[in-house]
Design a protein that fits this description.
The complex is a heterodimer of chains A (about 375) and B (about 400). Chain A has about 375 residues and is an alpha/beta fold. Chain A contains nine helices and 17 strands. Classes of the chains: A alpha/beta (about 375), B alpha/beta (about 400). Chains A and B meet through strand 2, helix 2, strand 3, helix 3 and helix 4 of A and helix 9, strand 12, strand 13 and helix 12 of B.
């Protein structure tokens, strides 16, 4: 069993350290070595054609990043290999991303990558090859719970916390994970990288989506989904304009609507809804954007699945706020066996810009309880606007 | 902190590079302490030049060439580029119809990439000829390709022995077919020196590539054996060294090291080749016994390089196997080319008719001058558990997401 003090009491376990070529994963690998583990560095090749992904220092998938990862492994003094995950990544992350947008949702590819690549394909391969765990540079903490369960908690650095994109991990996945950076702040990690002689110490953080090389998500999607014009309407159905593809929009978006006519009250308008089949995009006021109830599908729980309604906080997008809420798990039609459960989440205060496709991650204090994908949102009639 | 393996390394990657002979290190170290440009006219220059020319004579003697046929280069890649581009340019200059180049489809990238470049940038019509399931050139396909338009042929290039699967190519037949039409032939003999008898004059090719670091010599030096009557357009222009074919100040210690390594390799070849083929067959038999599913790639026995064993392990990824063996100090190769470390299926195995998965499931073990029976024994002991483990990892990485 790998619980107890989360590997700390074990003299040496065999660890695959995923090295992206950035500063965080390099320091995480160095710390795993220092903790006494037998560490092997692995860079994940996510594209067969690395030049098609981000270039320069901004992304995670380039030839330069592979070289930086290799040099970090040299400095840390661990073996280094490149694992070709390009086919899995394309099928499980890139195609999923495209399909989600085509369905009018706003996916989070980092969640998908953690769920299906880093802590699935990579972890499975590592375990099969005789390793015990995968270490990454995510800012999140793993804590041994009272009953031997591994708890996932927020990082001590709230500005870097990445527990949101890890909320999708199951107990089994968490039990085979190491997040050596969860107790540190980013400045501490950078300083440590410099002190360790890691050349990536000053490398800029990666942002945006690693497989969209120029950061133009709408343009990238247009190239794959094709332009398909649609109407932009207000909530009464009145047509305000047209667009060249509903995938260019996200619920809560304000910029780039390109509407000729201002709203009657002169206030900004926001995307309220995206209809995938017709491509119809509904816009409205900030007040209309606010929701206080949502349904999220395909829940995954870090520990045992909760049965009753429970109080929690919920985070509805990366770097989003923590919102007090009440959640309950239920089947859409409870009597029908085999129907996958969904989570109903009632927010104490309405929230804006809640986009279907994003992850709803539920917390108890700093502890992650689980994660589900936002399917639909609603606003009760008496909700304060 | 360093993850040094406890046991000494079993180095089974001599086709990638070899350790330098102690005798070579000694002579190179001595020369690195002396001043003198081989092109200078004073005493130090004359001494340097004498050393270079003696090395040229030594090298020529061990491969049965004339000293004037030795063009020192920075290594095998440069020699291949010089031969292919240089012969193409000079032959087309003589007759603009000569735009065709024929090559086997299993050449090294130092041959294939210049061919692709000439095709893309210089109007060359490159035809890559098929090989059989053992990577041996289809001579009838070569004959047919020549007969299509012999006057349009600039050159033919076929390696002496394949670097991945060790197959010896039918160079006699290539030369016979080409010489009937006066078409120059280049061969990459990088893997063959020290493992096979090499007789430049008898082979009858116009140009032959060799390199230092595959034969117990240093990196960064090689040679193109180039017949006196073969004309190549230089790649490098400058001081006019090396018959005005390859300008650049002579790297005296490296040239001496190359010649010394070639001399030692060729001198020791009669004992080493049978010794290596014995070890090789023991390795192949032992692995096939331990892993009955494994398949030998390339011909058996005398049809392949004495030091080459290349095997596929169906259901495994070669990369996983390499990693598991590396962790035990057993060093071999997947034989695949990498860009950003992303392994591509070997063009050699694909040309042999293997599918992508089989090509990716392969390992090359290459023996050389430092190989001992214990190296082979370690492979035989380690291979079956490694294959079991790699196969289980291979199956998870292809299944659908959990």
């Amino acid at each position: 069993m790998l619980c107890g003090k989360r590997f700390d009491g074990v003299s040496s376990v065999k660890v695959i350290a995923a090295l992206s070529g950035g500063v965080d994963s390099a320091v995480a690998a160095a710390r795993a070595v220092e903790a006494g583990h037998d560490v092997t560095g692995v860079h994940l090749a996510l594209s067969r054609n690395p030049a098609s992904y981000r270039t320069g220092s901004r992304g995670c998938c380039t030839i330069e990043d592979a070289g930086d990862a290799r040099r970090a492994a040299d400095v840390i003094g661990i073996p280094f290999y490149v694992w070709d995950l390009s086919e899995r990544f394309h099928a499980d992350v890139v195609e999923d991303f495209i399909a989600e947008y085509a369905d009018g949702r706003t996916p989070n590819p980092c969640v998908r990558c953690n769920e299906r690549i880093k802590f699935a394909a990579v972890l499975d391969k590592a375990l099969a090859l005789g390793f015990d765990a995968v270490a990454t540079g995510h800012y999140a903490r793993l804590v041994s719970g009272v009953d031997g369960e591994v708890e996932l908690h927020r990082s001590v650095d709230p500005s870097k916390d990445q527990s949101y994109v890890l909320g999708v991990l199951t107990q089994d996945q968490l039990a085979h994970s190491l997040f050596p950076l969860g107790g540190s702040t980013k400045p501490e990690v950078r300083a440590e990288a410099a002190a360790r002689g890691l050349a990536v110490a000053a490398k800029p953080d990666s942002h945006d989506i690693c497989f969209i090389s120029d950061g133009d998500t709408a343009g990238w999607l247009r190239g794959r989904l094709g332009a398909s014009t649609g109407e932009i309407v207000d909530s009464s159905g009145e047509v305000l304009g047209t667009h060249e593809g509903s995938f260019g929009f996200t619920v809560g978006q304000r910029r780039g609507l390109r509407l000729d006519r201002p709203a009657p009250d002169g206030r900004p308008r926001y995307v309220l809804d995206i209809e995938p089949v017709t491509g119809r995009v509904t816009v409205g006021s900030r007040a209309e954007l606010r929701v206080d109830s949502l349904v999220a599908a395909t829940p995954r729980w870090c520990g045992a699945a909760p049965v009753n309604a429970f109080s929690c906080t919920v985070q509805l997008r990366a770097h989003g706020e923590q919102l007090p809420a009440t959640a309950r798990v239920r089947c859409e039609s409870a009597e029908v066996a085999g129907v996958p459960p969904v989570v109903h989440i009632d927010l104490e205060e309405p929230a804006s810009g809640v986009a279907p496709g994003q992850a709803a991650v539920l917390y108890d204090g700093t502890r992650v309880l689980g994660c589900a994908t936002i399917a639909r949102t609603s606003r009760s009639a008496d909700a304060p606007a | 902190m360093s993850a040094a393996p406890e046991a000494p390394v079993a180095y089974l990657d001599h086709a990638a590079t070899t350790s330098v002979y102690p005798e070579v290190i000694e002579v190179m170290a001595r020369l690195m302490g002396s001043v003198g440009n081989a092109s200078s006219l004073h005493g130090s220059g004359r001494t340097a030049r004498r050393v270079v020319e003696e090395s040229r004579e030594t090298l020529a003697a061990v491969v049965n060439a004339r000293p004037s046929e030795v063009v020192f280069t920075s290594g095998g890649t440069e020699a291949d580029n010089l031969a292919i581009k240089g012969l193409f340019w000079s032959r087309r200059r003589e007759d603009p119809r000569r735009t065709r180049i024929l090559a086997s489809s299993v050449e090294h990238h130092a041959v294939l990439d210049p061919l692709h470049w000439l095709s893309a940038e210089a109007g060359a019509d490159v035809e890559l000829l098929p090989v059989d399931a053992d990577a041996r050139l289809d001579v009838e396909a070569l004959r047919a390709a020549i007969d299509t338009d012999p006057a349009g042929l600039a050159l033919i290039t076929v390696m002496l022995a394949n670097n991945e699967v060790g197959t010896l190519e039918p160079l006699d037949e290539v030369v016979a077919l080409a010489s009937a039409h006066g078409i120059p032939v280049h061969t990459d003999a990088v893997q063959a020196v020290g493992q096979l008898p090499i007789d430049f004059a008898a082979i009858g090719v116009d140009a032959m590539t060799i390199t230092g670091h595959k034969i117990g010599g240093p990196f960064g030096v090689g040679a193109l054996l180039l017949r006196r009557d073969a004309t190549v357009v230089p790649l490098l222009h400058g001081g006019g060294q090396e018959r005005d074919v390859r300008s650049g100040t002579s790297d005296v210690p490296a040239i001496v090291g190359l010649a010394a390594a070639a001399e030692l390799s060729v001198k020791r070849m009669p004992e080493r080749a049978p010794y290596l083929s014995g070890l090789r067959d023991r390795l192949i038999d032992g692995v096939l016994e331990a892993v009955p599913d494994a398949q030998l790639n390339g011909p058996e026995g005398d049809g392949r390089l004495p030091g080459n064993a290349h095997l596929s392990f169906p259901g495994c990824e070669g990369d996983s196997l390499l990693m598991l063996l590396d962790a035990q100090g057993i060093e071999c190769s997947t034989g695949s080319a990498c860009s950003a470390g992303v392994p591509q299926a070997s063009h050699v195995l694909l040309a042999m008719g293997r599918d992508d998965a089989t090509a990716r499931s392969s390992l090359r073990f290459s023996l050389g001058h430092s190989s001992v029976p214990a190296d082979v024994d370690r492979v035989i002991t380690a291979i079956a558990p490694a294959v079991r483990r790699a196969c289980s990892a291979g199956s998870v990485s292809t299944e659908s997401p959990r």
